[in-house]
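Need tokens for this chain, all 357 residues.
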Amino acid sequence: MGNNVSSIWENERKRILGFTHSISSLIKEYAILLELGKEKEARVIMYHIEVLIKSIRISDEVEYLKRFFEIFIDAINKKNHNETGNLYLEDKMLHAFDTFYHSVPFVKFGHDAANSFINAYTIHEPEITIIDIGFGSGLQWKGFLEKNPKKINLIAIDLPTENNLKKSEEFLQNLKQPNVNFTSILKKVEELDFLNLPLNSSFLVINASFSLHHILPDELDSRSGRQKLLREISKLKPDLFILVEPDSNHSNLSPAATIIEVMAHYMSVFHALDYFLKENENLMIIEKEFFGREIRNILGNFDSSRYERHERYEQWILRLKELNLREVEKVSYTWKTKPLIVASAWQPIASFKKIPL
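Here are the structure tokens for all 357 residues:
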């Protein structure tokens, strides 16, 4: 697939319901003009888009499109109103995120898939060590630990913030399983010395669920970029490496092409949110404050300050194969016909063993 506006549009238009809308076509025209360097003509198209959004009448069935277009166009037009850093720390998001997690099969799909891989590949292991990159509140592990009788050493890695310190302390206080040893390390994962982690000789799992797309690509940070981090991880020779990531390219495209790529991914996300949370009071909070902020972060930052940098799964395959890892499991979450999330499990080629799930 090409990386210009027209090729991305052609690849996505048949599987994204909202791409048939007239505003979507105008956004495509706007992006093409930007790609050609015709900014004056592009501003004229943008004016027409803004007028159309204010006056257009959309049926209840696709009301989500109007909300999406408003957030999306606002993000394009306010590029200098940047929102950077970790986007999910505000207290007001906690209740909305809990609703989202349990009602919309995005994050929970990834967590459940990752945990099923771990269970399958450690079924005969009396003891395992899990290094979790991007621990958060430990939401992925609560049910997993309750149902798992084996000895588990869980090493949680996350950013050094007061909020993360509080969450790790709460997780430890609520941990009731005597078979679980919990260690929290609050440090940027790019700066971590993996070889000095408190490891033993047990089966080693490294889990990266929705975390690695926050790491800068190597072309923006040659000292601690994405591939360098993966090389450091591979030095531990993990018995199982778990990767869960959105399946979209918001990392290395031109600003014009990024507009179409973002529209394809997040228009599908909004469609799914509307389906699962149609009558829920948290729907608009999740749209505006969660995914809306992601959209603004991507469209407002084309340098190292961008925090959301998704890559397509094909690119992750190339990264991991370079480290002599082999895919042993893969599942995808697709909305309609648009892939949104991929969860996969990898092993060193030397110890490859595919297990029927």
